[in-house]
Amino acid sequence: xxxxxxxxxxxxxxxxGLLAGALVCQAALAAPKGSPEHIxxxxxxxxxxxxxxxxxxxxxWPAYGLDYAETRHSKLTGIDAxxxxxxxxxxxxxxxxxxxxxxTPLVVDxxxxxxxxxxxxxxxxxxxxxxxxxxxxKVPRExxxxxxxxxxxxxxxxxxxxxxVGTFDGxxxxxxxxxxxxxxxxxxxxxxxxxxxxxGAPRVIKGKVIIGNGGAEYGVRGYLTAYDxxxxxxxxxxxxxxxxxxxxxxNEAMAKAAKTWDPAGQWWVxxxxxxxxxxxxxxxELNLMYVGTGNGSPWNHRKRSPKGGDNxxxxxxxxxxxxxxxxxxHYQETPGDNWDYTSVQDMILTDLNIAGKKRKVILHAxxxxxxxxxxxxxxxxxxxxxxxxVNWATGYDKKGRPIETPQARSREAFDSVPGPFGGHNxxxxxxxxxxxxxxxxxxxxxxxxxxxxxxxxxxxxxxQPQSGTGWNxxxxxxxxxxxxxxxxxxxxxxxxxxxEVWRQEYASPWNGGTLTTAGNLVFxxxxxxxxxxxxADKGEKLWEAPIxxxxxxxxxxxxxxxxxYVSIAVGWGGVFGLFQRATDKHDLGRVYTFxxxxxxxxxxxxxxxxxKLISGVKYDPAHIPDGTKLYVSNCVFCHGVPGVxxxxxxxxxxxxxxxxxxxxxxxxxxxxFVKKGMPxxxxxxxxxxxxKIKAFIQGTADAIRPKP
Length: 708
Fold this sequence. Notes:
- By secondary structure, the protein is an alpha+beta fold.
- It has eleven helices and 40 strands.
- The protein is globular.
């Protein structure tokens, strides 16, 4: 419709509108810090331009990896190697959670957004450490059995006044950043008959909220979905592996991928895997987004694709057009994945001088134990070297393919090094352009794998690992005791020379992600409860705070009213943390925030409630063999081995009160812990099965009990 106003009149009205908007904005910014008006104003400004502008000084932490390149490198120097030993506690904030906390907090002008377990979002005033609001998406607790690795959440995205969170049960929710009220909500799960989850942080790219899903161990097909940030309308979806070949493929990329799978394995029945549950980065100049894809479903390559094949796009870095979701290129780090070698670990974008030439690269240290440098313009392989002990491959050839060892695909039991926990898992990596080094936790969790010749999809066969709760591995785990040694370490890695520069040894695997700063610092938390700072160039420990509880999340740093802070979300958990721990303390999840000169006392952390080794439970020794198989199929990945492991954020059943095991059926069948996430085994186990499990628990405790 044509306007009836003269053009001059239109210009005056437009100018008046702009002035009015500016006055409203100024009034909001003048509002008290932490007020809804202030929060609305400062968060409304967060968009692509703001995130790129913040990267020049990094006063705020507005995105998951700090910037689009996800370097986790702060340019702030208020805390440096010279004064870091003066750091003190400013405040703590109670996240009111007892399970794993993996979140990266976002902070804009003193307003922090952080998630706890069960996808609960908290808004915190950094100036006071007080709650502004919280949002609980009310994830049904029985949904916990559909996730492999604890009911965790790695954080939120922030864009134009909205906070976006993916919930454990597969929803994507947009919240008003000032009030925490729901703006819109979408179900990201395309097939509710499959056990999809969401644990990763969304990313917002060009006005689209992008989220992937988890669930490969259970039998799902991986995909990535983009939603309009304003309305929640789905804009595109890209699958990571092909679907049923009896149906048309969604695009050329899927048709190409299908040629690398053997249909005799009917991969589409078990989903194929390849879930995008963590890593995404974005290069605005190239207009490319990069995603890391997950492991195969099932793990066993022969079961998934009997005649072999690379099985695209498992265990790969894939470049997509963020406008359309169209495939641009890929590089597969682990062709024909057979070991749960996901490539979803954090990627970092940077420019490096390699062989006298400046290259736009991706830095990546995935589960398989090799550090990769890839050309991000075209996916060309540049180099890969092992950053830890590796026995499945001796290296990579000039074409970027692994040179596998003969034992790598053995049908018999073999130690997988790294094992399925990875040489490096999701725990965040950082890169310091001044030192030229990447910093990340390295680990080995000993695991022995053997081909499960009897595996069938969803068969729930006693003795098959966690098959009673939906796992589909096609592998036996620790049918023989692994011989490799457990370890954890912090490593500084030179990606140009492809070698380790320094390391700090840790007490245990499963340590937290890293932050590096222009103050020549690296911050990281440990599994044994220490939050520490090291010199970025030499790795010297400069400061340490005894938190007491193990940390898996990465720290962040930011500036508020001219003062630099460092914060870390603490809460022991994740897949290893469910049944293992490296401290004797146990606490609710908390955010710890430090500043130079602060002097608040550290909170007293209670002892882990470990009971005595159980005794006196009556059982029939003849039931132990069957009980062992039933325990492996239903209990071991959460509770560990009775009496051998000491328990994580879930108790070890060798150390609970004997009465609990005597009355085990009361807990197994719609028991009191279902409301905390324990599966209900009604209809899955019989009372005779429970008696056999009791025999295994008490029998194992008796076997390891010190003899008088």
